[in-house]
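User: Hey, my collaborator sent me this sequence without any context and asked if I could get a structure. I don't really work with proteins. Can you help?
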Amino acid sequence: MSYNLLKGKKGIIFGALDEKSIAWKTALRCREEGAQLVLSNAPVALRMGEINKLAELVQAPVIGADVVNMDDLKKLFEESTKHFDGRIDFILHSIGMSLNVRKGKHYTQIDYGFNQKTLDISAISLHRVLRTAWDMDAINEWGSVVALTYIAAQRVFPDYNEMADAKSLLESVARSFGYHYGVKKKVRVNTVSQSPTRTTAGSGVKGFDGFISYAEKMSPLGNATAEDCAGYCVTLFSDLTKYVTMQNLFHDGGFSFTGVTQAVIEQMEK
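Assistant: No problem. I've predicted the 3D structure and written it out in structure-token form, which is a compact way to encode the shape of the chain:
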């Protein structure tokens, strides 16, 4: 069902790889709610993914950009504002990559060169995106930026590895830049801490199947789906949340504030 929450709004969606990705689902919901879109991803992701299929569904151009390359980001915003004939209203940052996880390196034995790349791509990229938009005055007043994160930024999940550090930094960037952008342009910046979700990236984490089952038992409402996360992001892009900024918002069925559930107790007593 559409509520026209984003009618007349224009936004950039980063990170839609395939139909499993939250960014993909969010693009579909944004379009359903009346938004015009530009889709962006790294050149390698554009080759590996199916973004052109999504582009047809949401009637959006695809503009490739390496998020650690400031020239690429400047070009993205230039082309996007030209396409929209004006500033944008919202951005979804759905970007994360860990070379140490890919290479199977234990957290205590990470390669620091890989780690630097992980932090740059997964966290500092948000700062780069915000700075580029700031410098170019590319976001309308009362615009909204949302970045996807995970509760491993606050709690230890051993196999989440260095991505936990990256998510902590991502959330800090959202708070710090959110302050400055709020003062300057009333632009709000938030992170959404989503339930473990069966995306292509998420499924690459060691022990993911076992953990998603555990999280389901630990969440009073159950794990939030990618589709429901997309709907939540829509509300944060809309004018209904104009005074919500610098927040880390848990969208996890109650997992984040649950100590233990009866289902987990029964499982442990078997």
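In plain terms: Residues 112-136 form the longest helix (25 residues). You can pass these tokens on to your collaborator as they are.
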